[in-house]
Amino acid sequence: MKRLIVANWKMNGSIQLVQELKSTSLSANVIVCPPACYLPLINSFVISPGAQNCSQLSKGAFTGEISAAQLKELGCKYVIVGHSERRNLFNETDALINQKASAAIQAGLIPIICVGETYEERNENRFKQVLLSQIDQVVHTLDIQKYIIAYEPIWSIGTGLIPTNENIKEVLDIIRQRIGLSARIIYGGSVTDKNALSLAEISNLDGVLVGGASLNIHAFQTIINAFQGDLA
Ligand code: PGA
Fold it and tell me: Which pTM does this prediction carry?
């Protein structure tokens, strides 16, 4: 299977960036997750649009929320759930993330479920139990074929710090031992055009989730090339 490259624009970007994105080579394995308001502008040329969040609820009086079915109607194929910014800034719990992932699957979307440890948890060597607890609580009701896990150490997001390839490989193995060898797992956290080739060497890594560097179209194209091997 081809590896996935996921762009997470977070609350960044503009109509201008949407225009610039048209110059990149966007196969079905390149998933672009802009703020939801730009989704109608990208789905004519992005084969695999994604959202950054969805409601766990299907419809009703929930001002400001967007349902998974509505995202699907807009052409989305994927949705990120449980990003650490949503966990930390918007108090999302593992139980809620499980509900959001279920709602996404029910609507025909593929949830990209984020898990990751803090700097402290890594330093105190508690990362394994933290990750497994998140995994256990979020995916226990879900079919392994229907979701993707994104391992995103919190200390690595937006910091320029990145685990060694051995550290990442260890986590991939820990997660697969727990939920199954067929689990699809990508890595996120300070992925750039500079470190993409090295990350691509991790043989059992299914791709990357790219935040800041996805806002620079040239850097993003370089990352796509590193993981998909088709140098443009
Ligand atoms: P970053 O963000 O690439 O800017 O570190 C990754 C993410 O939070 O998904």
Answer: 0.97
Among residues 46, 55, 53, the alpha carbon closest in space to that of 8 is found at 53
Specify whether the CB–CB gap between 212 and 191 falls below 8 A. Answer: no
Helix (H) or strand (E) holding 127: helix 127-139
Kindly tell me the sign of the dihedral angle through the C-alpha atoms of 156, 125, 207, 108: negative
Is the minimum distance from the CB of 158 to ligand 1 under 6 angstroms? yes
User: Which residues are tagged catalytic?
Assistant: 83, 152
- CB of residue 8 inside a 6 A radius of ligand 1: yes
Block means of pLDDT (10 residues each) for the chain, 232 residues, are 94 98 94 98 96 98 98 98 97 98 98 98 97 97 97 97 98 97 98 98 96 97 87 41
